[in-house]
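dumping this here so i dont lose it again. seq + smiles for pyridoxal-5'-phosphate
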Amino acid sequence: MIDFRSDTVTKPSKEMLDAMLNAELGDDVYGDDPTVNALENRLAVLTGFEAAMIVNSGTQSNLCALLAHCERGDEYIVGQGYHTYLYEAGGAAVLGSIVPQPIQVQAGGELAFEDIEAVIKEDDAHFAKSKLLSLENTHCGKVIPLEYFKQAREFSNKHNLLVHLDGARIFNALTELEIPLDAICQYVDSISICFSKGLGTPMGSVLCGSKAFIAKARRVRKMVGGGTRQAGLIAKAMDFALDNHISRLKDDHSNARLLASLLKSHPELTVTEPESNMVYVALSDNIDGQKLAKDLYQQSIKVSAGQSLRLVTHINVSKDDIEYTAKTLLSLID
Ligand SMILES: *Cc1c(COP(=O)(O)O)cnc(C)c1O
């Protein structure tokens, strides 16, 4: 099966599993797991933040961040389609009594500063307290440039906002921007990074920020049942991914561009030029998206059915898979 549904479907390689088997372990709730401690230190150095904390998932990481930055009755300003608003079961509001203030996302995946400014509330007993700006990079595969984060920092300082970056796929963004992680982190107060997507680990995310922020986040992590014991098993996979799976992200991006270029001339398909590892293909009304997904499945290609396909490239999709997929898809709609 060639699975294009997401870059979360990747399986750990034998080399990654071997590394995990050799990890030195301890109890991380006691702070005793040397492999976890080493990974957290490594991430602190890479991001330029004082501290880092491993978590089970990106959702848990963002939840810890929002609850550590905001108190009950505070508000975070966020993109309508951003993960921290739309795809986390309302966790910040449900569990933290934090008020979301969603605003429209621009075509490039960023938020417009005038839109943010328009929803910032003055200090008045009627209003929730505007506290945090929650950004995302990449958003729907779109790469948001460094300059935007510089401006977001200046803007947030002026308006007394903290900034959280949901960098679930930040290494995909950095691959295109050709800058190191700390270049972007200097402009935000915290970052969350997923390792279970393009980096190919079975699970695991990391949240980074100041020592005081991570100390608060650790309490939230414990509260939501995210304190784990011999977590070094996962930290080792994450360490392996940092060593081996970052430089290859450019292959996923060139595979995405190849797939787009092979599909784009077909009159029934509207293909958006990919900026990282996601290809969006809108199907004309002449094509039945549900049937196409079933037909592709018969040819060993898995996609999420719909009139707009999101095809995600990752470590378990090769260039040959891309060529086979384009050929198969074109033959099915002709
Ligand atoms: C996937 C994703 C997350 C959350 O990751 P999980 O590990 O699935 O909880 C957060 N933010 C963005 C932008 C994502 O794509």
